[in-house]
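ATP-dependent helicase HrpB, Alcanivorax jadensis T9. Tokens?
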Amino acid sequence: MQKKFPVDDVVVPLRDALLSAGCAILEAPPGAGKSTRVPLRLLDHFGADQGRILMLEPRRVAARSVATFMASHLGEPVGQTVGYRTRTDTRVSAATRLEVVTEGVLTRMALSDPELQGISLVIFDEFHERSLNADLGLALVSEIREAFRPDLGLLVMSATLDCGPLVTLLNAPVIRSEGRSFPVDVMYRPPAPRQDWRDHCVQKICSVAGDAQVVLVFLPGRADIRRVARGLSESGLSLPIAELHGGLPLAQQQQVLDSARNGDALIVLTTNVAETSLTIEGVTHVIDSGLAREPVYDPARHRSRLVTRRISEASARQRSGRAGRLGPGCCVRLWPESEVMASHQKPEIARVALDQLVLDLARWGCREPQQMHWLEAPPLPAWQSAVARLRDGGALDRQGGLTDHGAAIASLGVEPALAMLILAGREQGLPVAAARVAALLSERDILNGQGVDLRSRLQALESHPDRHRLLLAEAQRLLPGKPPRDSNDWRDCLGGLLARVYPRQVARLRQGQGNRYQMMDGPGVQLPPGDSLAGTQWLLILDTDGQPRDARIRLAMPLEESDLQSVMAQHGQWHEQIGWDSERQRVTGWRQHRLGAIVLQNQPMESLSAEQQIQGLLEGLRGDGLRLLPWSDSCRQWQARVTKLAAVDESAWPDVSDAALLENLERWLAPFLAGMRTLQDLKRVAVHEALNLLLTADQHKRLQRCMPEAIVIPTGRRVQLDYRGDTVVLAVKLQELFGLTQLPPIAEGKLTISAHLLTPAGRPAAITDNLERFWRENYQAVRKDLRGRYPKHPWPEDPLAAEATVLTKRRLNAGQ
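Tokens:
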């Protein structure tokens, strides 16, 4: 009897959705059978005359495995009804109706045939992984359906995905299938402090091996797989150990899957290739390191690099679910339960270099990211950075269009940065060396921990080819036709070649430093302590640890001055640098010969133009502040008057805070700096006159009317108001306000004046903003105190009936 899968129950509604809407979204958890059952069942509903079904898988090993499984289900060898196509391997024929391809293959097919003739349905499997190629493929298919092929079917299948944005983008119905799984006992067993997690992993594998059928161990990369395999061998464990990763030949991958399917007890050490679409039978126990190697953009080498990082909660659930396919299972997680993890992995389009994406879309005819329909648009800074690199490499013209050189780069099927190196190597008589460097940059370091010099790696490939067969085979794949030979010695010419191809990665030793370098485009990098290249004047940085600041160099090529000739000719420029010398307190200028951020030579400028002098003065003010200007009390009072009025007035007033003034120096101050160059010159600036430029004529009148600089008090004296504090202050001797019941309002009554009443000696006696109440309620107490301290001055019982004065009683009497 044929085995039934949960997804079988939704095939009919899925078919109906595809026929009616033309597209659909299938949400089905791991174990539901979506990757192998749905495509085969849909073959029954899409006749041979309608065209092939194309199904995309995120990885080569999954594409081969899924295609092989479906072919065996039909009782056929792969390549008949069901075939597959990857970058390095193809099994299809004229009879193939269902073709499983890796995601990058769809991009190449669409670029070659924008109508995808002969294809009736495109299926995106495991879309929740959100690879860059999947996002690009979806954008291309969406445009193809809109512009050329409204009849082209589209099915997106996912195990864990928030379908809301996808539904909005595609306007597609969602079909959901229940999974089939058994409970999994999840245990958290982190390593002890200072214990290598891989040694801890070996211990946990050994602890469960006696009770397990297949133990599936998730590790981040090949080096970790080899390390754990060696530890298991040394432990004396009798169970066979198998490795499974994308770099294995198909026959070895299939052998692992067949062993598990046959019910053999087995330990499978795998990367995240086994996390989703790749089915391994018989798994009862999962050991999860919680780590994966993901591509992340490295600004110090202008490419994406693989970085070991913590997985997301969604990935952890997928991995543990592998133990619950046959019955109750067990998952051991090698991290603390208290650790907070991201709910989902950030999509590749948001975290990797976009050079390949920009190049592919240039071939498509798209020069701006907003021209496409994206589930998540590429970040604009990353897009612009990729465009700049491709222009530097001659792949794009100034308008962003594809050049002939760009087409040649695209035809190689490797990332653009490596393709540029390979093509340049062929032109410069170093095809083999260039291909080997490209292979070295694509794989893990073959001499990890043995210095960073690229030359030692190339020498190792020559001296010990048997140890590095896989890497040499990859290099050979990048060579055209019959294996060529280098006409030049890489030891003499490789530095110049690399500098021409990757000029932005040129770095020079910082002055007075032994291992710290300045890169051409800005970032600082450093050599590991004690490295043999320490003190080398020039380096070409090929790999770092990915840190955004002071990244540690992992791979570099030393350069001679002669290697930099073409770089200097193309990128070296003279710049005039105008600035403020805080020590000399004057504007200074230099002519700098620069290679990007690297200053090669400084020459002082003897004479500066009027514009340059003003520019230098403004830079000095921005750096040292407005204190360089001759601020008077009236200027600060003006600033406070405008600020207070702006806070209560409905009219639009300029921001005159120090911060705002510094931001707008060109508007109000620059016209008053003509002919000035030194701090002494700045002391002659008419600041008040300059500030007035910020107000219109009507605002000047309104400021004078609403916020007067001074008021006339009963003695006839004109007294300045102080606007600089929290309140507007009138500071006068108490006796000068005899007879006055209220102070004049300001800001059209929206603000009041606070009277600071002083003693005859000018010391504070009282503060009030309501004179009438002060005379009525507080004056007698103040009078009693002041009569004793200042008996020579008049202190009338009725201050409102008295004459305002500053005179003593004797002088008052003398004047009568």
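The chain has a mean pLDDT of 88.
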